[in-house]
Design a protein that fits this description.
Layout lengths: L4 E7 L4 E5 L4 H4 L1 H12 L7 E7 L11 H11 L6 H4 L4 E3 L2 E2 L5 E2 L4 H10 L4 E5 L3 H4 L6 E5 L2 H8 L12 H10 L14 H13 L3 E4 L6 H5 L11 H14 L13 E2 L7 H5 L9 H4 L4 E5 L6 H5 L2 H6 L1 E6 L2 E6 L3 E6 L17 H8 L4 H5 L3 E4 L5 H4 L7 H18 L16 H4 L4 H13 L4 H17 L7 H12 L3
Length: 495
């Protein structure tokens, strides 16, 4: 991220207000917002030639947060602000959109902006009051929240504004996870013990997962309970998640995101909205789900182009979008959870209910391309729940499952200490031999599965990584044949 300097020259000549520096339309429109904001704050711009330059000129500027520094730069050039009274040799960063009345309006992307500026030695920030909480989580800086342009002028002329107190993320983190959450609980789900087991394995290793079953079997219900059992993000991950949501304007008043994101877009979503794009590329749902879950309900109903657009991001953990103005890279390290009916009517293979022909069944599932299915680690059927199961004692609570998941998470954290990856699902193939060695018996089982199921190389390694997670859940150091067998069972549903 580049720091932009705003320079203003006021000279005699034909009255005008020009802005230069490779500006987008919303930056050019700042001219009218700034002119009205200054007038409604009590100052009149003189009939002079005003030129504003946003430097460096070779980087395209976009967004409305240049309004405030442009207004301050103009007022300073007119002698209405004496920054030397406030300067004391220290640098100040200003950002914020101005309304026509002079009010300073909240903006997106404050957290990454402050972090980038701090790396360049800036410790003082003048920001909209509504954004103060977001920036206060960063240590060693002073943030001054302002409501309108009048506050800024007063402060820069030597007035007093209290800097925002620092928010202790560690304390917030401990308090958040010390409380019993109100998330939907796994104990509310009747039956489906095999599916719950598969979901636990998926959560422990952050593995991609597909649920296949008829309507009403609990696919969506199970998926929506995932946030209650996912491994806690560490503080570094929380900050990474928060930066993404800050830029996207998705914080909704929160200072920091303390839980893993769970995104569930509708199946009518376009490929651009899903993976990102546009003339000036923006992050899509897959990036907003970074370090968390992207849930695609009714997967076979999604547009083929949208589903296929996930291939590269799932593999590379990032979205790369090339445009004439440059290349944009968005992170996309997610756990993909998808759910689908087995056919159009939803009841295959129950021929008492299913009215689809064999060709219609193949056509429906065929909407999900082979390369996407190859990237799924775990696939499980969600059968119809029998009446007797509705009155039986329910299974473990989300809290109990989460404790097992957290234990497996700690094992992985210790194993991969110093590496660039955190979970078994993220393990590169080149590290399989180092972290997932197999005994002779286990190798024989894998070789047989490779030939009989016609596995791809990717699928072969995915089975081993799932087996590694199963072993971690049981607290066992070595991958055993029973772990391999269970992992293969989660794969055969795809064929």
């Amino acid at each position: 991220m580049e720091i932009v300097s705003v320079e203003t020259d006021v000279s005699d000549g034909l009255p005008s207000f020009e802005m230069v520096g490779l500006l987008n339309s919303e930056v050019k429109e700042a001219r009218e917002r700034v002119r009205s904001a200054i007038k409604n704050t009590g100052f009149l711009l003189p009939p002079k030639r005003i030129t504003v330059n946003l430097s460096p000129a070779d980087i395209r500027k976009e967004g409305s947060f240049f309004d405030l520094p442009i207004a301050v730069s103009i007022l300073n050039s007119l002698g209405l602000i004496n920054i030397e009274k406030r300067d004391n040799g220290e640098k100040y960063l200003l950002a914020g959109e101005l309304s026509l009345s002079g009010k300073v309006i909240r903006m997106n992307g404050v957290l990454p902006m402050i972090l980038a500026a701090r790396e360049q030695g800036i410790k003082n920030f003048i920001l909209p009051k509504e954004n103060v909480m977001e920036g206060a989580v960063i240590e060693g800086i002073n943030i001054y929240g302002v409501e309108d342009l009048r506050d800024v002028i007063s402060f820069l002329n030597g007035g007093s504004i209290e800097s925002s107190p620092h928010i202790d993320i560690k304390q917030m983190y401990d308090e958040y996870y010390g409380k019993v959450g109100n998330l939907p609980d796994f104990s509310e789900i009747a039956g489906q013990d095999g599916v719950k087991r598969a979901v636990e394995v998926a959560a422990a290793g952050m593995h991609h997962m597909l649920l296949v079953g008829p309507p009403g079997s609990g696919k969506s219900m199970i998926a929506k309970r995932l946030p209650g059992i996912l491994p806690k993000p560490d503080i570094e991950e929380c900050m990474e998640i928060t930066k993404i949501h800050s830029i996207a304007g998705e914080l909704h008043g929160k200072a920091v995101m303390l839980s893993r994101p769970f995104r569930g877009p509708h199946h009518t979503i376009t490929d651009r909205a899903l993976v990102g794009g546009g003339n000036m590329p923006k992050a899509g749902e897959i990036t907003l789900a970074h370090r968390g879950v992207l849930f695609l309900d009714e997967l076979a109903e999604f547009r083929r182009e949208a589903i296929d657009a996930l291939r590269q991001p799932l593999e590379d953990k990032q979205v790369v979008i090339s445009r004439l103005g440059g290349t944009y890279v968005f992170p996309s390290d997610i756990m993909l959870v998808a759910a689908t009916n087995p056919c159009k009517c939803g009841y295959y293979p129950d021929r008492n209910k299913c009215t689809c022909t064999d060709n219609q069944v193949k056509s429906y599932i065929g909407k999900i391309s082979g390369p996407i299915l190859d990237r799924i680690d775990i696939c499980v059927n969600t059968p119809v729940v029998e009446a007797v199961e509705l009155s039986e004692k329910r299974g473990d609570t989300s809290q109990t499952i989460r404790q097992r998941v957290e234990r497996a998470r700690l094992i992985q954290e210790e194993r991969y200490k110093g590496e660039q990856f955190r979970f078994n699902s993220q393990l590169p193939s080149s590290y399989i031999q180092k972290y997932c060695p197999l005994g002779n018996k286990e190798k024989m089982i894998m070789d047989k599965a490779y030939k009989s199921l016609g596995l791809s190389v990717r699928a072969y390694f995915k089975i081993i990584k799932v087996a590694r997670t199963i072993a971690d859940l049981k607290g066992e150091k070595e991958i055993q044949s029973s772990h391999i067998a269970e992992a293969i069972g989660y794969r055969t549903e795809l064929f």
